[in-house]
Amino acid sequence: MVGLIPKPASAVVAEGQFRLTAETDIYVEPGTEELIQIGEYLAARLNPATGFALEVVPADGPPAPGNIYLTTQDGEPALGEEGYLLMVRSERVSVVAQQPAGLFRAVQTLRQLLPAAIESATVQPGPWVIPAITIRDRPRFEWRGGMLDVARHFFGVEDIQRFIDRLAYYKLNRLHLHLTDDQGWRIMSESWPRLALHGGSTAVGGDPGGYLSLQDYAEIVAYAQRRYVVVVPEIDMPGHTNAALASYPELNCDGVAPPLYTGIEVGFSSLCVEREATYRLVDDVVRELAALTPGEYIHIGGDEAKATSEADYRHFIERVQGIVHSHDKRMVGWEEIAQADLLPTSVAQHWHSDLAATAVKRGAKVILSPASRAYLDMQYDPSTPLGLHWAGFVEVRDSYEWDPATQLAGVAEQDVLGVEAALWSETLRTLADVDYLAFPRLLGIAEIGWSPAAGRAWEEYRKRLAAHGPRLAALGVNFYRSPQVEWE
Ligand code: TNX
């Protein structure tokens, strides 16, 4: 129990312990393709370190002692989409959920109940013992996200998949991909191929560029789906668009394409709001992405449009909202979109101002990513070798000690769709860099999104966090060993 992050809604320790042995198998009921896949995911997590060969078996009722049982049979409706009941007893481990997603979340709890060495890629001595416990759990918020900026620096399919694995381990369920910005356009468009071919050819500091093919994107979506993570693609506009403007002169009001940009200034670029070419681009790109995105949301950016007049901005956002809607998606945008008329289905993402309260007044829900808490690219302290500090230094405690229901005046619990940690990549070149800023702060945001507010306290959290040091190490995560935590 001590080591679980996010902290479960309820956990009661029981008598005895379950021992995972070479004879243990994973029984799933019903034996559908989807449940078998969840069982296989669990087996793949347990087999390398144990050296066992757990198998997945379709079941008809609870299996013989010594086994693991995952079922959606008689799942309580109160557990919702992602909740679960996990019972560890000396005879067996059983998980009951209303939906497969709940079983998947429970599998993460089960991994965390085992010794940290279970996450090792090579055979470890064991023994593989889980203390008996009953956990009844479900998330507080529906949206628990991690954002990765693949525009300032490009991260490809493999890195993004590793990032998804890390999100899933902490029960996060949204991967927001910031796909485009001034420095790079990172997704192919069949209608506008120069966006990626030219606009994706470089990165901050002149570092190597790159882009995702539509097939790469589909592969990422499928990988995320098997981890019950919804991909939310972002095309940032009308500002943050130099890469697009450089690729197609007709997107510029003066008809002249600017050069590519590799600096880190913001707020200087804008699609030409008066030109029809702009809306053809938006419609084509949103249509292509929507077709490959099973999730409900398309993120349209909308931040820091300092090169667009206020009236033009509102007109642009409202028209783009209509385009997103016409492709059967809900629009998400940074909090600045609150200046426009929003549909009740639209969502505003808070980062630094009081505009989220305006969005709420206009009937929209909000996602909270307060920069001083949830921006993972903020340096921990002045000695952090990566990151920025325009929103201050954000130590592990700062990123943990806040609550979505009280963070903003005019935004109450029922207005909050959830929370998201954002990682901007101006200063990041490798997955090790990503890890160093995301971990361990991402765990705190995951807990804020999942766990009940009552019972959350830094002094208790930092002890559970300490137990994740060896886990993160076994997973190969290059995390920051904050001096605020007495790492195990
Ligand atoms: C602000 S947050 C930005 C990004 C930068 C980030 C750096 C937001 C919506 N805009 O363009 O990358 O700060 O921390």
Overall description:
The chain is built from 15 helices and 17 strands. By secondary structure, it is an alpha/beta fold. The chain folds into two domains: 128 residues, Chitobiase, domain 2 (2-Layer Sandwich), CATH 3.30.379; 313 residues, Glycosidases (TIM Barrel, Alpha-Beta Barrel). The strands form three sheets. The protein has an eight-stranded parallel barrel, surrounded by seven helices. It has a seven-stranded mixed beta sheet with strand order 1-7-5-6-4-2-3. Strands 10-11 form a two-stranded antiparallel sheet. Ligand TNX binds next to loops.
Domain tally: 2
Assign the CATH superfamily of the largest domain.
Glycosidases
> How is the main sheet built?
8 strands, parallel, barrel
User: Which CATH class of the largest domain applies here?
Assistant: Alpha Beta
- The helix-and-strand class reads alpha/beta
Instruction: Give the strand tally.
Output: 17
Helix coverage percent = 25-40%
> What is the radius of gyration computed over CA atoms, rounded to a whole number of angstroms?
23 Å
Strand content: 15-25%
Give the distance, in angstroms, between the N- and C-terminal Cα atoms. 16 Å
General form: globular
Low-pLDDT sequence parts: none
In CATH terms, what is the fold-level topology of the largest domain?
A: TIM Barrel
- Give the strand line-up of the largest sheet: 8-9-12-13-14-15-16-17
